[in-house]
């Protein structure tokens, strides 16, 4: 910096969970419902994992069934991921996924992977993912083989989330969302643009 130039600080980001515990509860609930059968999951266990009281879980989400329905809802994440023109959608999805992971300390889509191969209520996670993510994306795509391309794009997004989770302290942790998009988004965009 030369003399006379001032450094402008970045605007402060508001905390995602300003003391309410809501985000911690959601993270704990996602872990619980994707790793154990529904019948084994308790409000008390989720509260303990989140570091809050069971009454706070009930205050925010109501009964266990309502909390599960919130966890199984991919709609808001999909709406944010797909909120860009088709010509830049691949890049937007990558940047948005990486930023959301870093801001919320969790992946907006990855929880569906833990529901694979299980039969109980966790099958609802797979059904909702198919409807709210894969089918919604297929409806936006032009050209042929939209369903297959949407499945492959969803696979790329899940793979990116899994890689960033697996290598939490790796090179990806130091790379900015835009740089990751420079490297990763072209593969997604080629599937989006395919006639």
From TrEMBL:
Residues covered by region (Disordered): 1-21
Pfam families referenced in this protein's UniProt entry, alphabetically: TetR_C_16 (PF17920), TetR_N (PF00440)
DNA-binding region: 42-61
Keywords tagged on the record: DNA-binding
Highest taxon listed in the record's lineage: Bacteria
HTH tetR-type domain boundaries: 19-79
Name by which UniProt lists this protein: TetR family transcriptional regulator
Organism, scientific name: Streptomyces gelaticus
